[in-house]
Amino acid sequence: MRLPISPPARRNTKRPALALASRLASHPTRRLKSVNRVFYLQPPLPGADNQTVNPSASTAPAPSEHYENFPVASVLCPPRIRPAVSALYWFARTADDLADEGDASAEERLTDLAQFRSDLVCVADGQSHSGRWPHVFVPLQGALQRFALPLSLLLDLLDAFEQDVAKTRDRLGYADEAELLDYCRRSANPVGRLLLHLYGVNDGASLRQSDAICTALQLINFWQDLSRDIPRGRHYLPAADCAKQGVGAGELEALQQTPASTRLIAQQCQCARALMQSGARLVHTVPDRAGWELRLVVQGGLRILDKIEHRAFATLAYRPQLNAWDFCVMLWRALWMRAPRR
What we know:
The protein is mostly helical.
């Protein structure tokens, strides 16, 4: 759900921070880099404040700066769970960098992700890790032990990263909506479920609403980033929907904004909006300040959809971004999100 964490980072973000922060975006990253959801500052590397962990000692590249897909380091995050959220952030951020950053080949990325997966399984079993990513696995081991985080959700995230590498390498897209939603189930939904676990929210309705929000955010990021993703070999528009609207692969590769492609993108955005709205009542279930944070996440995704619609769904030609005024709109709308009548 693009994810609250510890003290804000001292480095500048790629985009100007809004009042409450910011590196959401989506990232959905894809995955983490999913919608420019506003507001939260990247947490510092564990060990950054004269502690024993030195990320520069790792053989892997240090995590780079990103505009994230979920809230991190929010001032709304309860102090009790900030270390765990920070650990989850750096786990996902580092895995995403292994999958997506630098000049490594697909085979090298998959090898690194396999080692990363092995380290995760080791620390979950209480064993020592390889030492390549101490800034990730030292704090994550503590979070796993203290909060009994579900290992399966972390493994799902790694599955999605590996799938992204393979799909991009082979320039493969998604056959239909079902395949795309299965990717979102592993790339986005685990983030929301992990956060709910930390807050002690585990009823079935809340989990389904969280999945709806996270999947919607991931999809919104896809439709926001078409002009960037397609040239990089990332194809998220389902082939069945493209065929139904009469949109050919060639015109997508050429980023041609035709009436047919506009209808296609409009259809995808309408589905994402409906999904987001179906999960929005979760903001009234998540306790304390986290519910207010979630309101902003939901409104951030909806605001991106508003901006896409305002520009006639022409995201093959341009990428909408949130600005300070949008944050004001989101805040106002968040304040007026009423609990459903019983």
